[in-house]
Amino acid sequence: MPSVSSLFVTALLSSIAAAQTHTGTLFNFVPGLGACGFTNTSSQTVASVSSQVFNSFPGAGPNPNNNPICKHSVTISHNGVNLTAPIVDFCAQCPQFNVGLSAVAFQKFAPLSDGIVPNVTWEIV
Ligand SMILES: *[C@@H]1O[C@H](CO)[C@@H](O)[C@H](O)[C@H]1NC(C)=O
Ligand SMILES: *[C@@H]1O[C@H](CO)[C@@H](O)[C@H](O)[C@H]1NC(C)=O
Ligand SMILES: *[C@@H]1O[C@H](CO)[C@@H](O)[C@H](O)[C@H]1NC(C)=O
């Protein structure tokens, strides 16, 4: 029954991709019209991931608006702060495990003037 087993494998790979924890650098990203097709602002809690993470998410296809990752969030933990933000965009030039947060969300971790926060732990949920 090849169709049943390939469905099973697809489901298994999806849950692995969504549950994996990464370590990367947090940066302040300025939302606008993003790859998911939403228009967001710096005062909304939203996130971006690298193009590698975005484009390798299970179910990703040619139209980024239809990428299933657009229905997911990132949960970021650092120094006792734990924040969840919906994924709305990707960053074309970022290292694979960097995560962007809108200003309002970034400021839960550090002042905007810090620019980045190294070594944050995050996962897609
Ligand atoms: C992002 O923008 C879309 C509309 O384009 C809106 O539906 C969604 O609620 C916004 N996200 C947040 C976290 O405000
Ligand atoms: C952050 O919150 C999420 C969702 O509530 C939880 O699953 C996770 O364990 C928390 N992480 C830390 C480090 O507290
Ligand atoms: C990153 O975090 C790990 C685990 O908490 C720690 O061992 C390491 O020293 C940290 N690296 C930096 C550059 O802060």
TrEMBL record:
Taxonomic path: Eukaryota, Fungi, Dikarya, Basidiomycota, Agaricomycotina
Keyword Cell membrane (UniProt): no
Species this protein is from: Somion occarium
Keyword Protein biosynthesis: no
First and last residue of the signal peptide: 1-19
Transmembrane intervals: none
Descriptive protein name: RlpA-like protein double-psi beta-barrel domain-containing protein
Alphabetical UniProt keywords: Signal
UniProt xrefs under InterPro entries: Expansin_CellWall, RlpA-like_sf
